[in-house]
Amino acid sequence: MTDHFEVLERDGAARIGELRLADPVTTPALADPFLVDAGSLWTADREVPEGDEAALTVLPHRSFPAGTREEVRESFRVDHPAIDAPTAAVVDAAAPRDVGADAYVLADASGFVGHGEAFRDAILSAKSALPADTALLLSGVATPMNVALLAYAGVDLVDASLARTKGTQGRYLTADAEHFLEDLEELPCACPACATPREEFTRADCAEHNVNALEAELRRVRERIRTGRLRDYLEGQARHEQWLTAAFREFDDQWGYLEERTPLMRDAEVTAASAETLDRVEIRRFADRVTSRYRNRFTDQPLVLVPCSATKPYSDSQSHRQFHDAVKWRGHTVSMTSPIGVVPQELETTYPAQHYDSVVTGDWSEDEVGFVAEVLRRYLSRNDYSRVIAHVPEHGYREVCERVEADPDIDVPFEYTCVDHPTTDESLGELNAALSGEPAYSKREREHNTVKAIADYLIGDGAGDDLFGGSGGGASDAGDAIRTTGRYPKLQVWGNDPDAGREGEPGEQLATMVPQYGTLSFTLTGARRWVESDAPTKRVEIDGFVPHGSVLAPGVVDADEGIRVGDEVVVEGPRAFAVGRAEMSGPEMVESTRGVASMVRHVDEK
Fold it and tell me: What span, in angstroms and rounded, lies between the C-alpha atoms of 90 and 82?
């Protein structure tokens, strides 16, 4: 059980934590000021330390170099004593094990930091074996240039020993480079150590500067995690050294590790400024859900592909208003964009579709064309349309459409209506003419299909129909089990039973659309309907108490493995039925002994 470390905020695998010493420490942090080593058992027998509430005590240990055989490690395995104070246990990446400590030191860090694949494997091994609510410490490896990547991978504590040593060797460190001190004509830093005139600046001053630079970079990293922007920073920062770039890409290939730890939604904007943006969890998750969960319900209308807009959501932009005036509800509008892929109109507010910004040059890279083309291909393979009207400009958009059109597995005709630019009178006239004779869908159909599409996206394939009824297409929604009120995008979803609601209302309220993130917020009635439906339920099982405001991790008995931070969840126990939003992933809820597992919005006592 972890008594002295709690995770407070998450940004993928990176997290803000609190090491609860006499003077609490916010992580990621330098451990030097409070780390006390009880000593190695290789050199002598050690007394069991009493521990200190003001320090993190490293228990007596035997460390092994990278590559040590399993039978050797087993022969010299250490039994870690339990003491009533903050403790850290030394383990190696090949065979880490939970011994009940608050933090774990990977003894062989110097053997894998500097090699992308080995670093990835070591971190994944440690994270899979050690409790989610314990701190991970790497000693002797941190520099201002690599500490952002260490934190991104899930490291919570480092020391300044390497930075200090490099300083005594005359190596001046910054967040983007390592300089030989003799090569610097002036010092590029304004820390106290660098206030010394250049000609008087010694190697001792250089060591002090390196530690200052490492501390400054950790402050930057913590703030980036708090704002959900560490990835944006790292996409540029990791390019300064080859192994950092390699390790960054290795972690991008670990979809399961990063996806489980990445929130479903957040306030931070996704900045699309590099090719690596296409590998972000938020981007890949959206593309995957659109092509595996979302189902088009506008089956009487053709697909109308249009370019994205700088204004988000797209429907608020001037260009999309012009498209709407030409389409007049006679086609199903889907926006094409890099780096998102394709965005059906029902999901235009769903994170990250209205929370990204990209660099606009007019030229698409081959990576962008390939990615968007693959998403469009998968989208068309899943959804049936009589035809595709591609109202898109040249350069990128048209190339994507032509590539998909040429795919032998795509059996739907394409028509191109853009002349020079999508918003010229001639182009809009061509779009209007192409839709001549097509039936228009109603406002009610659009609203119902929107909340169903969001349910599909958030919960699973078919969830919209399972929760809200309907046959899933056509101009009539007679089979729907809902009514909608309010003005898009602030829709309220009600059961289609006026006798069940208060006077003047269409029925009992089931959910509300949250325009900020394009998600659904369920009422207790809606949550019960969810549980009783065939849609997969994101359930948190709790002990026999009635939660008020939140559910703490110690009270969680079990949780669905598919729960992600930000998910809508049903909370149920012997004494309560509640609905709220997850603050941890499902696996972390079960593993953790501290922290808020879920916020609770509505609760009924049984």
Answer: 14
